[in-house]
Structures are given as structure tokens and as C-alpha cells.
Amino acid sequence: MNQLELNKSVKLQGQTVRPFGKRDKFGYLFGDLGNDFFFLLVSSYLMVFYTDVFHISAAAVGVIFLIARLWDGFADVAWGRFIDSRKTTINGKFKPWIFRMSLPLVITGLLMFVHIPGMSDGFYLAWAFVTYIVWGTLYSTVTIPYGSMASVITDDPVERTTLSTWRTTGSLLAGIVVGVIAPLIVFVDNKIDANRLFMAAAIFAVLAVACYMACYKLTTERIVAPDLPKEKGHFSKSMKNLLKNKPFIWIVVSMLVSVLSSLLVNTVNTYLFKEYFGNAGALSMVGLVQIISMILAVPLVKPLVKKFGKKEVASTGLLIAALLYLLLFFLNDLTAIQFIIITGVAMFAFCFFGLTSWAFITDVIDYHEYLTGFREDATVYSIASMTRKVGQALAGGIGGVAIAAVGYDSTVQVQTEAAINGIYSLSTLAPGVLYLIIFLLLGFLYPLNKQRTNQLPIDLAEKRKLIALANESKNGN
């Protein structure tokens, strides 16, 4: 029986639900579209806003980012455990939390970009710290249920890859707005403008809420695992089981390094084009080329994964991206256009990991249930998310410290030659080395190849039947 036939007979809270299809894909797309309106704005412009508008030192901003992201990681796990302890409702287990928490999230996101003129340096530092911490905590309350529900929308490995692709397409569409249009709005005379940045944030806040509501309305949760009693100390046992779960270990480490590299590039690119190339407006072209690269990659992901497997396709793309960035490190006399074209090709190759990364997580969630018998979507996803937050913390901390270390000084009009060259080296060598590390982790240590991934849902379905039969037998006695 194929996935479509299975879904036709699925019941949630006693009601038959429609089969998996385009509506779910569009709904899941809208979820990440809403997420990334603010996430990409924050990762691309918040550090520059803090250094150039609030006049907080780059090193201090790095410390704020580090503390906030580490805190968010613990918030992810706490929220994931809380959601896993809730019963599935008629609207699902995860969707209701997206509905409830999206408005508080975007309001806090808007507050991050408020600039009150004439305040003290201490006020600006406190405002940045408090609003960023609160926004990150609320971000967990939406993204943990959003990411977790992918594993209960469908259990077909190829369809999960498709769902991951549509999620990334939502990020792509947000990137069109933030990466292409935002630089043309937020910069005036090659400098960040506080009022224009706040206006952009307000627009994104309205759009984000609309996207979250569309995600809530269009998606359907289908997979409901048997309810097993949770023993005392179950969380500790879950952690021990996860440490034995090799697919989980290596994919979360890979995602941590990926996030570290991608956010470091986003942060440093702003300084690279503003200082090294002397053309902050060219950031819009960077965003456009990266988006075109992803558009070209999207239709290739499903057929390539179907033929070769997620692990095989993603690791090949990572190796190509690593080699191109390492090449850029040595080609330090390029024009901005030449640099953008080469990074666009690297991004195209990297997309094959980015577009499948969330499908890896759904496979890992299944593997956890196969090993333990417990369905803990939000817990597993939240721990994976926590590692991404650690990557974000390291990216923010390392980014701020590295920018300061190469000699960047926001108080001067012209940067030193050493600082400018240091920024270029940072923007090329760091992603090249980090992408190479991910290739080695995924290609040689992650064990779920194509054959094992395709067999996993079959084995899991059989195990669920045995658990259900055992429960019926126990209740009958």
C-alpha cells in the first residue's frame, strides 16, 4: 500500500482526513515564509543596526548574540518537552501553538528595531539585550511546533523531502524580499537608516502573521503514534537514547556547522560589500543570485533524491560548495560581480543540503521512535533546533569578535586596509572550511543511506502494529 492509499484511511480524533497533497505543501511553505521575514532581517541587518545606529561595539553585540542563542537553545528543549506532553487535539498537536504564539512573536520582533533618539549608551545596550532575548524565546514557541509537525504530515521519505523543499522555498521567497528589496530600502547614502529599517520590520510583521495563519489553515497532521505511558525520569532516558542514535548525532552536528557558516556569511557579507567592495547596494544582487541558484535547484531535488538518496545528493553539493569558497580565498582581486557569480554557483551546490535538511530531521525522528517505541517529535526536533541555536550563538559571537579582531571600527569613516582584507578572508575561508567539515560528517559518518531510509517507515509501521496489538490485548485482559 502506498502513502496516498494509507493517508486516505487515516483518522484523527475519529475524523477521516484528506490525503497529503499540494495544500499541505503550500501551507508548510507559508510557515517558513513567515519565520524568515524576521529571521533573515535579523541575521542580515540587526548587527549593523546595533553597531551603526545604537553604536554598540561589535564585540559587545557578539556577546549579546552568544548569550541569547544559548538561552534560546534551552528554551527550545523546554518547549519541545512541554508540547510532547500535550494531547493531540482535533486540529492536531502542533498547529494550535502556531496560531496562539505568532502575534506575540512578531510584535516583539518589531520592538527590536525601535530606535529612541537621545538615549544613553547603557539604555541602547539594555534595550538590545532584552528585546533580542524575548524575541528569541518567543521564536521557539512558534518554530518548534512548526518544525515538529513535518513528521506527522506524512511518513513517506520522498514526500518528506518534497515538504522540506517547499519549506525552503518559503525561505527563498522571504529571501527575495529581505535579500533583494530590503537593501534598497534600509540604506541611505551607503549607511543603515533606522527609520527605514523600522518601516521594513513593520511590513514584515504584518506579512508574517498572515503567513502563519495560512500555515495553520492549510496543513493537516495525519500521523498519530500510539500513546505510551511516560515513566518517571523519561526525559533523562530520552537523552540517553538520543546519544545512542547515530543518525541524530551526526545530522545535528552537521546542521550546527551549517548554521554557523551560513549566518557568519550573512553577517560578514554586509561588511564585505559595504567596506571591501564599497557598494552596499550590491547586496541586493547577492540576494538575487542566491535566490536564482535556489530556484534552479528546487526542481532537481526530488528526482535526484529519489534516484540517489538524500545523504548522497546533499554531501556531493557540500563538497562542491566548499571547494568554490576555498578557491575564492585565493582569488582576492575579483570584482564584486565576479565574486557574486562564483558564490552563486557555490550556493546552488549548497542548496542540495539546505533543501533536504529538514527531511533528515523527520527521518531521525522516525529512527528515534524505532529505537525507543516513543513518538517524541517535538523533543527530538527541539534538541536539533537547540544545536542550531548554538550555531547561531557561535555565528553571532564569532562574527562580532572576528569583525572586531580584523580591525573594523564603526566610529571611523574609512577602514584600514588590514581590516578590509581581513573581512574578505573571513568571508571566504571560513565557509570553505566549514562546508568541507559538513561534507565529511554527512558523507562518512551519517548512516541513513537511501536503502535504509526507504526501509525505515516500513519497519516502523510494523512496530506500531505490534504495540497497538499489545495495548489491545492488555486492555482486553
TrEMBL record:
<feature type="transmembrane region" description="Helical">
    <location>
        <begin position="194"/>
        <end position="215"/>
    </location>
</feature>
<feature type="transmembrane region" description="Helical">
    <location>
        <begin position="428"/>
        <end position="448"/>
    </location>
</feature>
<keyword id="KW-0813">Transport</keyword>
<dbReference type="InterPro" id="IPR039672">
    <property type="entry name" value="MFS_2"/>
</dbReference>
<keyword id="KW-1133">Transmembrane helix</keyword>
<dbReference type="InterPro" id="IPR036259">
    <property type="entry name" value="MFS_trans_sf"/>
</dbReference>
<feature type="transmembrane region" description="Helical">
    <location>
        <begin position="26"/>
        <end position="47"/>
    </location>
</feature>
<feature type="transmembrane region" description="Helical">
    <location>
        <begin position="280"/>
        <end position="301"/>
    </location>
</feature>
<feature type="transmembrane region" description="Helical">
    <location>
        <begin position="313"/>
        <end position="331"/>
    </location>
</feature>
<feature type="transmembrane region" description="Helical">
    <location>
        <begin position="168"/>
        <end position="188"/>
    </location>
</feature>
<keyword id="KW-0762">Sugar transport</keyword>
<dbReference type="InterPro" id="IPR001927">
    <property type="entry name" value="Na/Gal_symport"/>
</dbReference>
<feature type="transmembrane region" description="Helical">
    <location>
        <begin position="53"/>
        <end position="71"/>
    </location>
</feature>
<dbReference type="GO" id="GO:0006814">
    <property type="term" value="P:sodium ion transport"/>
</dbReference>
<dbReference type="GO" id="GO:0015293">
    <property type="term" value="F:symporter activity"/>
</dbReference>
<feature type="transmembrane region" description="Helical">
    <location>
        <begin position="97"/>
        <end position="118"/>
    </location>
</feature>
<dbReference type="Pfam" id="PF13347">
    <property type="entry name" value="MFS_2"/>
</dbReference>
<feature type="transmembrane region" description="Helical">
    <location>
        <begin position="337"/>
        <end position="361"/>
    </location>
</feature>
<feature type="transmembrane region" description="Helical">
    <location>
        <begin position="124"/>
        <end position="147"/>
    </location>
</feature>
<dbReference type="GO" id="GO:0008643">
    <property type="term" value="P:carbohydrate transport"/>
</dbReference>
<feature type="transmembrane region" description="Helical">
    <location>
        <begin position="390"/>
        <end position="408"/>
    </location>
</feature>
<feature type="transmembrane region" description="Helical">
    <location>
        <begin position="248"/>
        <end position="268"/>
    </location>
</feature>
<keyword id="KW-0472">Membrane</keyword>
<dbReference type="GO" id="GO:0005886">
    <property type="term" value="C:plasma membrane"/>
</dbReference>
<protein>
    <submittedName>
        <fullName>Sugar transporter</fullName>
    </submittedName>
</protein>
<keyword id="KW-0812">Transmembrane</keyword>
